[in-house]
Amino acid sequence: MxxxxxxxxxxxxGLAAAIGLSRIGWAVTVVERASILEDxxxxxxxxxxxxxxxxxxxxxxxxxxxSRGQYSGGTRTPQGGWLARMDGSALEKAVGTPIMGIPRxxxxxxxRDSLPAExxxxxxxxxxxxxxxxxTVRVSCxxxxxxxxxxxxxxxxxxTARGRLFPAHPGPVYSGSTVLRAITExxxxxxxxxxxxxxxxxxxxxxxxxxGRAEWHAVLSLPAGTRFADPLAELRRRFxxxxxxxxxxxxxxxxxxxxxxxxxxxxxxLPSYAVGRIALLGDAAHAMTPHLGQGAxxxxxxxxxxxxxxxxxxxxxxxxxxxDTERRPRSQAVARAARQAGRMGQQLSHPLAVALRxxxxxxxPSRAAVRMILRHHDWTPPQVx
Length: 385
Known about the structure:
Blueprint: E1 4-8, H1 12-23, E2 27-32, E3 43-46, H2 48-56, H3 60-65, E4 68-70, E5 73-76, E6 82-85, H4 88-95, E7 99-103, H5 104-112, E8 120-122, E9 128-133, E10 136-141, E11 144-148, E12 150-153, H6 160-165, E13 173-183, E14 194-198, E15 202-208, E16 214-221, H7 231-239, H8 246-251, E17 259-265, E18 274-275, E19 278-280, H9 283-286, H10 295-312, H11 316-344, H12 351-363, H13 366-377
Parallel strand pairs: 1-2, 1-12, 2-8, 5-14, 12-19
Antiparallel strand pairs: 3-7, 4-7, 5-6, 9-10, 10-11, 13-16, 13-17, 14-15, 15-16, 18-19
Helix pairs in contact: 1-5, 1-10, 2-10, 10-11
């Protein structure tokens, strides 16, 4: 088996894959098209499965130290009534950890710090990925050409590699939701670690960080491409009557900090996550809606599973076949569940349907809610030697 790899994409999944491959003795080069690593994004929640993957990669402790556990909070109505309470202690008892909240920029930095600086090529866009021989894959980045025994395409939902490998696949589609998010400029007086509030066709949530600041997000059911001249002013208009601390979170935000992205997904599942010596990973393989908070966690699972398969497989092709067999069913099932969660949560708009959903949530015992969460969170990683 070979021992050189190129990872296309320097996001969470790509960096995690590079760490995993390095831990099994591979020489890895990460190709990132951004010329400046700005770590775009606001905050992220990491569930037990993602944290266990990070433990296997050797960075779990550092990530936990920089995170805040989500012990309190839950789901509310715009008027402030509780639909479901979060029992972080019960979840910790069941899987060994609460969900942890961390800024994306911090997670990116911790992952990068686990790799040699010279292994990350920034400002290098992979314009083509092709298998040029029985044991060689070539990545062309303008004037730079990299030959390797393996290529990991972690180049996101708009993956160029995926389009070349599966030209007949319809690619990503709009989910019906658009999201605006930011991190507050200064600490905010919060009484919970995590909250979601569901209105009709709208959601507002926050994640508290160790330094007292918070990430907030607003998800709206709007036509694709909808944009606002003043996003923060628009959100204040839409959410001014919603319960505290929603107005306070918006007031603590600089207008320039607000990010706005349409939520796209791979609604048509891929037939495989590997072709020859090219593996797809993370959003390139299974981009999903954010309604379960599992996108990054599934990418981290991918990274660990790929490294473990390559550590023991007799050939690269055999290892990638094992990776595909282990990862595709689970990640695609999680993607389906995330889509359904959105339909029953933020995207629900009919008054009667919202009332029935809210009643069902209030009547659901906390134990049953924990069991539903464990379906996705309780994952045991393979060992990465």
